[in-house]
Amino acid sequence: MQAAAVAHGWCAKLDLVLERGHRGRTRLTLNRHRGPLCVQRPFYPESDGRAHVYLIHAPGGVVGGDLLEIDLVLREGARALFTTPAATKFYRSPDQSSSQKQRIRAGADTILEWLPQETILFEAARAELSTRIELAQGARFAGWEILCLGRTASGERFKSGSVTQRFEVWRDGVPLLVERLALGGGDPLLAANGGLAGQPVVGVFALTLGPDGPRASTLIASVRAALPELRSDDRFSITSLRELLVCRYLGPRANSARRCFERAWSVLRPALLDAEAQAPRVWAT
């Protein structure tokens, strides 16, 4: 479909439905897009028919006034891993906000993995970010989001602009995790010890715990033992919140956040998601 432009920016919408098909392979049964959001085709690098789906935003960056919406549905029994081929970049926009909204619904007995690369906010960007995960009974989930305030590689800081971010996990209408971040450029919370302590990268990684799986304390110990060596300014934690394990990162580098989360994923995936860790090929490009 042709891209839709409106007065305030680009509007892009992607609707996907995945269903379990013949011999257990998860198939893409609906792939509808408007504007520069799309997927090409699922990949099947794993023997259980789990689909690896790459979400592509062709322009490579989001500018003032843009609106991106993603709606994903996994039907009963489907298994899918979603990621992106590159970081999502929100460019400088002193006058207009940009928005990215993502709603993912996972039916009974599904396995959903939401593992996008990081989101980078340029200095003076204005962004509204929202991800809502809705799980039915028996659905299993692992997902992370990593936010970079400023282009850390070039020493840029988030001195102006604004961001609101919501990351929510629900099961049958009951919230399991609701994370909300609201900051303005130069906000005292960016430097405060009770806020981000001067660090520009923050991330959260949540995984569902099954009723019949290993104890949370055992899994937490395994993750801590497997972590890569952390620098003094990297902060990583893992805790249990009833149905969830929640990992958090705060530090100066997005690649450090990724290393921590990927290592945790590699340890927890066999125990919680029925498969050895197999990184999407696009992560190596």
Which helices and strands occur, and which strands form pairs?
Blueprint: E1 4-6, E2 9-20, E3 26-34, E4 37-38, E5 51-54, E6 56-57, E7 67-74, E8 79-83, E9 88-90, E10 98-106, E11 111-114, E12 119-121, E13 126-135, E14 140-149, E15 162-171, E16 174-184, E17 201-208, H1 216-226, E18 235-241, E19 244-251, H2 254-273
Parallel strand pairs: 2-7, 5-8, 7-10, 8-11, 9-12, 10-13, 11-14, 12-14, 13-15
Antiparallel strand pairs: 1-2, 2-3, 4-6, 14-17, 15-16, 17-19, 18-19
Helix pairs in contact: 1-2
Give an overview in words.
With 285 residues, the chain is mainly β. It has one domain (61-272). Helices cover 11% and strands 45% of the residues. The protein has two helices and 19 strands. The chain has helices at 216-226, 254-273; strands spanning 4-6, 9-20, 26-34, 37-38, 51-54, 56-57, 67-74, 79-83, 88-90, 98-106, 111-114, 119-121, 126-135, 140-149, 162-171, 174-184, 201-208, 235-241, 244-251. Strands 5, 8, 9, 11, 12, 14, 17, 18 and 19 form a nine-stranded mixed β-sheet that branches. Strands 1, 2, 3, 7, 10, 13, 15 and 16 form an eight-stranded mixed β-sheet that branches. β18 and β19 (244-251) form a beta hairpin. α1 crosses α2 (254-273). The radius of gyration is 18 Å and the shape is globular. It starts with a strand and ends in a 12-residue tail after the last helix. The model is unreliable at 1-7 (pLDDT under 50).
